[in-house]
Amino acid sequence: DQQVKQNSPSLSVQEGRISILNCDYTNSMFDYFLWYKKYPAEGPTFLISISSIKDKNEDGRFTVFLNKSAKHLSLHIVPSQPGDSAVYFCAARGNSGGSNYKLTFGKGTLLTVNP
Amino acid sequence: KAGVTQTPRYLIKTRGQQVTLSCSPISGHRSVSWYQQTPGQGLQFLFEYFSETQRNKGNFPGRFSGRQFSNSRSEMNVSTLELGDSALYLCASSLEGRGGGYTFGSGTRLTVV
Predict the structure, then answer these.
(1) How far is B28 from chain A, CA to nearest CA, in Å?
(2) Which run of H or of E encompasses B89?
(3) What is the pLDDT of residues A16-71, one digit of tens each?
(4) What angle do CA A107, A109, A115 make, to 5 degrees?
(5) Nearest CA to CA, how far is A86 from chain B (Å)?
């Protein structure tokens, strides 16, 4: 049972435009959500996170939106740059017991930003 | 400040063998987690250690085990290797292990033939 879903395996956008990556989750016990970016042959790099008590968090070109009622979050990248081309993972953390100490990841979305 | 170091970077093993992977966390980080990345399943949680104690374990068979030493370095072991164990094994460290502050290493690419 996949608790964190990224339904788009890939996304292609033009440089300078907005990239929107989506993520859905099913477990209402998740209280913290994170986005990671991964280049080939490297480990994931933390991008931005959001607590379940907020609906938006912004950091430079990156903004994450959370819609708790829909159990949906999205990552907006504006403007998109060729160096943003990578696999983006959505991850979620539980709020009790052992689930505090693990991240549940989606399968990732490959973003390609074309010059 | 040195990052998370995983050794070796690449490994080729034969079915039935066992393997040990090593992870050195960022200095001062006491939590170490392990994840398996495969093309079909994405990143899946294996286990998390804090102060030499396993606090959480993912849904993997008992062939997968780990431990943490007093200096926070961690090892994971896979016994009786199967072809399906071929994957990128990632280690992540953090101060307390509550998800948000995880820093990942570059991983160990294990190929089982």
Answers:
(1) 17
(2) strand B87-94
(3) 999 999 999 998 888 899 999 999 888 999 999 999 999 999 999 999 999 999 99
(4) 160
(5) 14
